[in-house]
Amino acid sequence: MRVAICTVGELFGGVERHVLGMLAGLAKRGTDVLLILFDDGELAAQARALGAEPVVLSGNNLKLFDTAKRLATVLEERTIRVVHLHGYKAAVLCALARRRYPFAIVKTEHGLPEPMAGSRTRAWRDRFYRALERFVTRVDGASVCYVTQDLKGYHERAHAGLRATVIPNGVESMDRARFPRPGELRADRFNALIVGRLDLIKGHHVAIAALQDRGMPPDVHLCIVGDGPRRDELQELAARHGVAERVHLLGFRRDVYDYIAHCDALLMPSLHEGLSYTLLEAMALGVPIIASRVGGLAEVLEHGADAILVEPNRPAELAHALRRLKSDASLGARLGARAQAVQRATYSLDAMADRYLGVYREALG
């Protein structure tokens, strides 16, 4: 079976980590995989490090039809029979390419649509492309996979009649001892960590507000790994709350596992979430987790057993959870150990790759 994985590759987040995991998992199973991107960025660099040289096509929207023609040529030359796509640009381009060269489409839904930062024109364009994506998904009879039941329910009407299944994301087991401790995570502090792009949906503002809670010990610090459009806004918010010296914006880091492995608590105060790779990696590393009771977080985690769950956008609840972990190291150890066991049993890379292979075979009929 020859499979292509197609996505933009402009940013680096959960979708891109999913793609890297699939490249490794499918290669392990002897599947011939081609990666097709529309941006030669971080994903392309990390794919090359894995030994997978991507085909990078033009990401210029003004050359949409030329790019689709080139995409069809690449797929035909490689005799690709299944394309596994991620994101609306990949969906639209694959739909156009399919008019020249037939292939089966498998599509993964990773999260809810999020508003685009920028001009009103960009926002309208984003809505147009998403509507077009829904249309071509139905017209091409795509097999649709969702990383959570929550997402399957959200798309139930739009995807009625299509082959649909839930396949949770998965990661490989990890050993905390393999990862060196970053200097920013000082041993004389309680280091809470958030990993993810700096966007409203991730709830960084909730964690910053929690830090200024009256009962919060002064040695609790918040380290934020990631970059995005709200960096300046978050710095200003920390200053306004009087906690600027305890909020550390570290930017994008390739050594992110070092930070996850050595933090005292991984925070996910998201307003909504699919099935975050940061979550699964923290579980794999046995790190105590505090997360919002939303989306995939609420599906995967059990309050009091393998994590502490709080209501979204409630700084006081998040502050209380932080104080609990700070004052009870044994609680954090129990939560982390249980989360690690759940990840290994249910959210492994092998299980994810095997299930997608089954979907590819079904898509081919």
Can you give me a brief rundown of this structure?
This protein has 14 helices and 13 strands. With 365 residues, it is α/β, with parallel strands linked by helices.
Question: What attributes does this structure have?
Answer:
365 residues; alpha/beta; Rossmann fold; seven-stranded parallel sheet; six-stranded parallel sheet; 14 helices; 13 strands; globular
What's the layout of helices and strands?
Blueprint: E1 2-6, H1 14-28, E2 32-37, H2 42-49, E3 55-56, H3 64-77, E4 82-85, H4 88-97, E5 104-109, H5 120-139, E6 143-146, H6 149-154, E7 164-166, E8 190-195, H7 204-211, E9 220-225, H8 231-240, E10 247-251, H9 256-262, E11 265-268, H10 277-284, E12 289-292, H11 295-300, E13 308-310, H12 315-327, H13 329-346, H14 349-364
Parallel strand pairs: 1-2, 1-4, 2-3, 4-5, 5-6, 6-7, 8-9, 8-11, 9-10, 11-12, 12-13
Output mean pLDDT: 94
How many structural domains in the coordinates?
2
The count of helical stretches stands at 14
| Inertia-based shape | globular
Content of β-strand: 15-25%
Query: Largest beta sheet, briefly?
Result: 7 strands, parallel
Distance between the termini: 13 Å
| Share in helix | 40-55%
The CATH architecture designation of the largest domain is 3-Layer(aba) Sandwich
Counted beta strands: 13
- What are the secondary-structure elements, in order, as H or E? EHEHEHEHEHEHEEHEHEHEHEHEHHH
> Order of strands across the biggest sheet?
3-2-1-4-5-6-7
Radius of gyration: 21 Å
Task: Please explain how this structure is put together.
The protein has 2 domains: 2-170 and 348-364, Glycogen Phosphorylase B (Rossmann fold, 3-Layer(aba) Sandwich), CATH 3.40.50; 176-346, Rossmann fold (3-Layer(aba) Sandwich). 44% of the residues lie in helices and 16% in strands. It has helices spanning 14-28, 42-49, 64-77, 88-97, 120-139, 149-154, 204-211, 231-240, 256-262, 277-284, 295-300, 315-327, 329-346, 349-364, and strands at residues 2-6, 32-37, 55-56, 82-85, 104-109, 143-146, 164-166, 190-195, 220-225, 247-251, 265-268, 289-292, 308-310. Strand 9, helix 8 and strand 10 form a beta-alpha-beta unit. The radius of gyration is 21 Å and the shape is globular. The model has no long low-confidence stretch (mean pLDDT 94).
